[in-house]
Amino acid sequence: MNIEIETGNITEADAGAVVVNLFEGVTAPGGATGATDSALGGGISALIADGEIRGKLGEVTVIHTLGRIKPARVVVAGLGKQAEFDPESARRVSAAVCRRLRSIGVKDTATIVHGAGIGGMEPRGAAQALAEGALMGLYRFDKYKSSDEGRELETLRIVEFDASKAPAIQAGADTGICLANAVNLCRDMVNEPANHMTPTRLAEAALEVALSGGMEIEVLDKPAIEELGMGALLGVAQGSDEPPKLIVMRYRGGSGSAKELGLLGKGITFDSGGLDLKTASGMRLMKTDMSGGAAVIAAMGAIAAINPRIDVTAIIPATENMPGSKAQRPGDVVTTMSGKTIEIDNTDAEGRLVLADALCYARSLGIERVVDAATLTGAIVTSLGKRRMGVFGNDQGLIDQVMASAEDAGDRAWQFPMDDAYKRQYKSEVADIKNTGGRDAGSITGAQIIGEFADGASWVHLDIAGVARAESLDGYNPKGATGAPVRTLVNLAVMLAGTPA
Ligand code: BES
Ligand code: MN
Ligand code: ZN
User: How do the domains of the chain map onto residue ranges?
Assistant: First the structure.
């Protein structure tokens, strides 16, 4: 879909539909909605009086204008209660409107930004939310369908009456387009079936992003991974015929610099559980176990486009976790790149193994500040459901910056505690540690096992097992991969670039 900016009067727009909005409880609309109401001879206020239009958040009412004004349809978008309105509401409204317009076959539409007038948002932020919601909400994964749905909303024109606001609206829309495209790219990678999205293919996807963003990329193959001594990553990979890859992307925006951020993403392209095989229902959606890796790759593309003054290195350990005849066994001991040994208590706790070596690798590059994203534990889904991701870390300053980035992005997050007292749960008889800490506090012990490899660096871990996938349409997230936490990671890079190292 194309998004364009235009100045003028929305009631005169040349489009299949024009979109105005209404807060809940407003009976006499003003602004663009009021002007449209007048042009329709009071048609909108009549529907309000009648009770059909209530202005509830996400309510979409399509009015056919039957020649009274140039556009064939007026859409009234409900914004909900004015006191509760925020950028997330604006994204959801935009998604709901665009999806409805597409479903009724409208190809081009003109809209005002939601929330900029009495909603109190700055035009720039309002336009960003509008673009994000529209593009994320219209996302479909249909590449394996032999016939497509046919209907497509092709053009969204943002119409602003006040020409002096147009540059801010343009800038906001540009940022929104950039973020939403990155989210949709992540979704494409995650929704891809595991027989197509192998570690090799994930590395190719990263290569495409790197080339189009002018970034450096290095894909380490199995011999190179062996050379580095990444026994934990190799242990997971040895049960599969698909060769593992260590994907390393570098964006340079600093001046060779003190400001550096490492982004790590779990890249398990399929998690069968290994010899500790998952149940059928537990395995069904495990093509999504590379969501963290996909989010990091997609975020790098957006970071390169935005060009903040910071160096960002992405590290994605990519492999399948399969129960082949060479598979690692419970009780095996592996040696990580740092020399620290891990007893394999459960082959299904593979994410922390591959991330342990990725974190060692980041440290070997001298990176002092690292954020990882991983579909790490089922326990986080028990704790937080699909509503929020879990945040863990060893540096409250960095945690706060990640939480603020998530909040601004609309990716919801919740911090968990970490405590040395949990260490006893993953003590091993034979190795330095083991890879599970039992049922109690499963997300915390999983996080802490990764954190064992931080080696003095500031480190934050995002457990996205709950939020990476939506089980049904939810606002701007269609069923399937959500693209979380792409926007958080991009925001973080931008925020860190603007603060002292
Ligand atoms: N990839 C899974 C976690 C997961 C669960 C992701 C549900 C998405 C949805 C992870 O590798 C895993 O299997 N974790 C185990 C750890 C346990 C064996 C300590 C789990 O959570 O059961
Ligand atoms: Mn697993
Ligand atoms: Zn996994």
Answer: 2-161, 189-497
